[in-house]
Amino acid sequence: MTVATRLRSRHLLGIADLDPGEIELILDTAVAMKEIGTRTIKKVPALRGRTVVNLFFEASTRTRLSFELAEKRLSADTMGITTAGSSVTKGETLADTARTLEAMSPDLIVIRHAASGSPHLLSTICKAGIVNAGDGTHEHPTQALLDALTMRERKGRLAGLKVAIVGDLLHSRVLRSNVLLLTRMGAEVRACGPATLIPLGLKALGVHVTTSIDEAVKDADVVMMLRVQHERMYGLFLPSLREYFNLFGLTPARLAHAASDVIVMHPGPMNRGVEIDSAVADGPWSVILDQVANGVAVRMAVLYLLAGEELT
Amino acid sequence: MMAQATTAHVLKGGRVVDPRAGRDGHFDIRIENGLVAAIGKNLPLDEARVVDVPADFVITPGLIDMHVHLREPGQEHKETIATGTWSAVVGGFTGVACMPNTDPVNDSASVTQFILKRAADAGFARVYPIGAVSLGSMGDQMTEMGDLRAAGCVAFTDDGKPVATALLMRRALEYAGMFDVPIIEHCEDPSLKGDGVAHEGAVAALLGLRGIPGVAESIMAERDISLAELTGGRIHVAHMSARQTMRAVRDGKSRGVRVTCEVAPHHFTLTDEALREGAGYNTNLKMNPPLREEADRLAMIEGLRDGSVDIISTDHAPHHADEKALEFDRAPFGIVGLETCVPLCLDRLVHAGVISLSRFVELLSSNPASLLKILGGTISVGAPADLTVLAPDAPVTIRTATLVSKSKNSPFDGWSLRGATAATIVGGRVLYANPAVTDAARFVIT
Ligand SMILES: [Zn+2]
Q: Of A13, A109, B88, B279, which residue is 20 to 30 A from B151 by alpha carbon distance?
């Protein structure tokens, strides 16, 4: 792997566009950023004078707060637009919103949107760099990067790790980004979920696909649980959440078959008693709070690499 | 209506390809008073004006596109009957059949008459309205098909969606059968389609787009073929895209069911892989049925080659640029097709060796004319002179900005192809001569 010194694109639209060297660069930069978070004055001037717009068309408290904190720590000027109360609800199109923003000359636009490909549409209209903060059921690249940082911290490597990802595989952008990142970095990915929630073509991405959680978890170094939404029952995907927990919920008994030093991850927000037993979520395996802390560091790294001056 | 007597003209020098008349060779065609007056070798000129046609140009019976959305009445910001029929003429079509999903829906004779009046006023391609199967295409009550037929409808469909229930389709096949008119079906199982926006496969999975499986189409086709078998009615499968549907239609034909099918050029030239190109998510690649995978595209090609596909139609579906400049999920389905069809078919089918020129004429003229029992499909003495002149070897680069359709929503921008429309003659008048491939001054017949 050649180590990158900069990113080739001025956007982060998805993990699909990153090569292994660029992924390493972001993770290494995130390690440096994390150190800033331990200082008394948690602020560097790396994005001073730069404008970052947070465009959140979908409710997401944790991702939005994480980006905002990352921007503040880098001294960027930030503006936030959320769906409620904005012109979006008055029927303005995304393209029009983008053109309006463009007139304010932002350096970066962070976008979260329910439609897959929205950041890509924005990238064809705006001069600003676009950061995908989650688009529909497509990608959530900064989530996969913070997950990778967490795994690397705990395990010292990504290559060769056995990672089980369990849950709603069909609707999960976290799954797509993680699969792309982990397979690219040489990890072994097992994806597990009910047959109704497995997308066609997942195997082609080099993933072992199974409907047995025991098979997925066996000897795993990392178990990542994905959120299962209540709404899925209405699309005839699931008969009940009770049955889902019986067949796919992560319990201490199931986790006993994983590697002895297994870590358990969850992108949040968790549905306790649906995809994960509280005893697991709050147990010694859980690195869920590490993920939150790493989220800020990874987002600082991405923003800095896309728009920053030299780090001091 | 034809004008009074005009100068006679003789088209001289072109290769005439007319499979239904068993003709493929260099013949003269005499046009008089808008009609074909004679066809043969070395016709006497009398006082006729000669129109020299280059020897490598091909004259065919006028092309007919039996699946066009003209959008008028109701959505004139996308297309009007005038702009749509002009787009047809520029694309080489002398006739189009238009879909009833306008606003209001063409479910009554008054709407049919309005369409025909507008088409006559425009004076470009001939228009053959298709009536709705059900009132408002809502799937509840059957339209007055007798009245619609008398007003000029040539077929019935609830296109845009499938005929809602098996019972309604059964009744429609029986009832339309009294007039020997086909039911055209937009084959799609609504529950399997759900809120899908792209073909269900590896590409949709990667792009995070909700999928529509190929069997959503074939399951509905199988229902309809079974009902056509039961009733003896005629079912026509519109814009076929999935290999499973091709198999169902072949099976039906082999059992003697009166089933026919059509394929649109985008389904034999593109696959869902195109969605990944450039920044990705190009909404001009969003249509229903969606672009499918390579195995499906090859099944369409095979059907075109072996004769299982009866017709090529464009599913010309204009949308305003503002409507397509949306998130992929929200953009409407459909692309324009009238002006890109001929180059795509000549390049990707004829020059690629998939089909012969005479099969091209069957697919784009003879078969739609037979299916709809309308004028044309062959060049016959005494019939209106509806002719298409092709320059099969002329290079063409598609520029969507120069399309004459009111909408420019085509994924073929920048494609370089071989084969163009040289001229389009409707009722003996040259309505269009392509300045890029022919000396327009020569191609004047009025
Ligand atoms: Zn349709």
A: B88
